């Protein structure tokens, strides 16, 4: 049986960047932080990445896939907004993550 060891490089590969929006800021006040993650990343990989990068243990992780959408811009120019996958990471009371 094989065991996998999460290293800092492989763990941090699951997280792309923090997702800073108005709703994400409201969730941060409730100890929930939002990250854009790799499309193939699993919840366990996200937990390992948060533990390795921020030294906190998540209480719960929820993942959401945002589909790409067709858009019409100015002057009728058509295009596609790219889709992505995001994770909402819930922390214990007292734990915080600083993005500075």
Characterise the protein shown here:
The chain is an alpha+beta fold. It has one domain (8-91): RRM (RNA recognition motif) domain (Alpha-Beta Plaits). 24% of the residues lie in helices and 35% in strands. The strands form 2 sheets. A 4-stranded antiparallel sheet has the order 1-2-6-3, with helices on both faces. Strands 4-5 form a two-stranded antiparallel ribbon. β4 (69-72) and β5 form a beta hairpin. The chain is elongated and about 50 Å long.
Q: What's the quick description here?
A:
With 100 residues, the protein is of the alpha+beta class. The chain has one domain: Alpha-Beta Plaits (2-Layer Sandwich), CATH 3.30.70.
Name its key features.
single chain, 100 residues, alpha+beta, Alpha-Beta Plaits, four-stranded antiparallel beta sheet, two-stranded antiparallel sheet, elongated
CA radius of gyration is: 16 Å
Oligomer status: single chain
The number of helical elements comes to 3
Distance between the termini: 41 Å
Q: Strand order of the main beta sheet, please?
A: 1-2-6-3
Strand content: 35-45%
């Amino acid at each position: 049986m094989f065991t996998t060891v999460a290293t800092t490089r492989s763990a941090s590969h699951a997280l792309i960047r923090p997702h800073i929006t108005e709703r994400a800021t409201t969730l941060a006040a409730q100890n929930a932080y939002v990250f854009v993650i790799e499309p193939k990343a699993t919840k366990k990989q996200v937990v390992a990445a948060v533990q390795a990068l921020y030294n906190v243990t998540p209480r719960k992780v929820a993942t959401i896939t945002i589909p790409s959408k067709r858009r019409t811009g100015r002057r009728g120019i058509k295009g596609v907004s790219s889709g992505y996958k995001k994770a909402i990471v819930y922390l214990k009371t007292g734990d915080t993550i600083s993005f500075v």
